[in-house]
């Protein structure tokens, strides 16, 4: 599944693109990634980029740093269950933001595998 996400990730936009946002993404294990996204793309692109990382948890929610709040539509559960997700610009992300990935406890692996098969 992670391999498929890696293949489907859109090309990183140029730093000169006026619609670009640069994000510093921090995983629970301490790994950090810098990545540019087009603000007119869905939060699913952000979610899938994180999911494709080897160190990423299987289920998670992504939060803004300040004020700390979840990004709407950008949890594993929301991406798997919703057909319409907000754009990155609608999620309130700015030119340069820091995001935190928080693992979601998974009591049922059946739930996650059902989600993976739909993606």
Automatic annotation (TrEMBL):
GO terms for molecular function: ubiquitin binding. GO terms for biological process: ERAD pathway. It is found in: Lipid droplet. GO terms for cellular component: endoplasmic reticulum; lipid droplet. Gene3D superfamilies: Phosphatidylinositol 3-kinase Catalytic Subunit, Chain A, domain 1. Residues 16-101 form the UBX domain. Its main location: other. It comes from the Eukaryota. InterPro entries: Ubiquitin-like_domsf, UBX_dom, UBX_domain-protein. Coiled coil: none annotated. Keywords: Lipid droplet. Pfam families: UBX. This is UBX domain-containing protein. It comes from Ciona savignyi (Pacific transparent sea squirt).
